[in-house]
Amino acid sequence: MSRFSRTFDRLRTRGECGLFPYVMAGFPDIATSHALAEAALDAGADGFEVAVPFSDPLADGTTMQLVNARALEGGAGLDDALELVSAIRRRSPDTPIALMSYYNPLRQRGDAAIAADLASVGADGVIVPDVPAKKPPSCTPRCVPTDWDWPRCSRRPAPPSASAPSPRWTRSSSIALRWWA
Predict the structure, then answer these.
(1) Which of 23, 121, 170, 179 could lock 86 by a disulfide, CB 3.0 to 4.6 Å apart?
(2) Domains of the chain listed by start with CATH number
(3) Per-residue pLDDT at 97
(4) What is the set of active-site residues?
């Protein structure tokens, strides 16, 4: 059973809501993003979404576009996000962590290399918001460590609207994909 599954089971059993902070690696700077994660752990965070700064975050609104830009201006990138995942994992071995990245940084790293990186830092999942819903990325399932349970790879929709569709899940022998239809 994965860390996400254990955490959601625990929350469900206790009738509690979970706290899963979104932390942009390198925002407002690298040291502060680490301090924010530490503070979230101290406050009882149940899990994390650690974001990779990206130059063209089309699936995000204005605020997140500005956050991405500031992190990039400070020199943050994929390696900083992986280090943040690793720091959280060292501090809290049982806390689930998903890496959120647009596909280009992952593809630039290469399927085998990103799979090794995700496994080595202890990521529990990866969210890729810019992959077309009808076609999974070419790195799926190669980009995910073989011991991941649920969630393995998901796609997040663009910011919600009044007519936002409901999420749907599909499972294969190696991954679970989330998409909005």
Answers:
(1) 121
(2) 19-155+165-180 (3.20.20.70)
(3) 95
(4) 49, 60
